[in-house]
Amino acid sequence: MENRNTKDCIGLIPAAGKGLRLGLPYPKELYPIIRNNRYKPVSQFVVDNLLAAHVKHLIFVVNETKGQILGYFGSGRRLNCSISYVVQELTDNSIRSTSPGLANALDSAYHLTTGKTVFFGMADTVMQPVDVFLRAYAFMQPSDDAVLCLFPTDTPEKFGMVRCLGDRVLEIIDKPTETDLTFMWGCIIWSYRFTEYLHACVNVHGMTDFATIMNQAIQAGHQFRGIYLNDGNYLDLGTYEEIMELDRRLRD
Questions:
Q1: Architecture in CATH of 9-251
Q2: Where are the domains of the chain?
Q3: Distance (Å) of CA 123 to CA 146, 159, 186, 236
Q4: Would you give the DSSP letter of residue 178?
Q5: Which run of H or E residues covers position 125?
Q6: Are 96 and 150 within 8 A, CB to CB?
Q7: CA torsion sign, 24 to 11 to 133 to 187?
Q8: What is the mean pLDDT of residues 72-97?
Q9: Region 177-206: what's the mean pLDDT?
Q10: What pairs with residue 162 in β-bridges?
Q11: Contact between residue 83 and residue 59 where contact means Cβ atoms under 8 Å apart
Q12: What three-state secondary structure class fits 66?
């Protein structure tokens, strides 16, 4: 696998949702996964994915209640990386929401991500294999605005499903009730060009839905491609049923 320079790459991990469905007394990103008789929070998995791709600067986007995440990960020194934290502030249209939304969270770190290649993964998921970002970055071409890592799923109603022609992404359909699609996006690497496009959509045009922004970018001519991870697994931690499934799969 090609060993590419990641000096201008940055990891972006949104963790600003309040996680009300689980009702935990601590951030769900710190939900304990016991591995080899040691505590491992679920958010450590995406950190491991990023470190496996040799990304050395990570950003957590948090809200004002997520101080325990800072307490656990700190500066990143013990992980041999640097970690920055950005606090996502409420927007006018998010008063009744658990968080201002994914697009706003991603753009909250614009002052750190501008000019960089962004490796984006969610803090409450487990992606296997561990080298998912490394594979995607080796796959990425200079002309790509974004590379989506595509995982097979039999629960499309929970995810952003992706329609492709070969490896060219045509459309993202978010959480469809009925579809013939079988691959969802789990994480994304994007270029500085899409960072600027996202920033304009959020701040100039007031857009809040990330899937809509991606679809509009594709329609505007941005090159989105998908890498199929047929041997991959993607587990989301949003409900207790998903926690039980996570525990079962990790034991297997």
A1: Alpha-Beta Complex (3.90)
A2: 9-251
A3: 20, 15, 11, 9
A4: S
A5: strand 125-128
A6: no
A7: positive
A8: 81
A9: 97
A10: 172
A11: yes
A12: coil
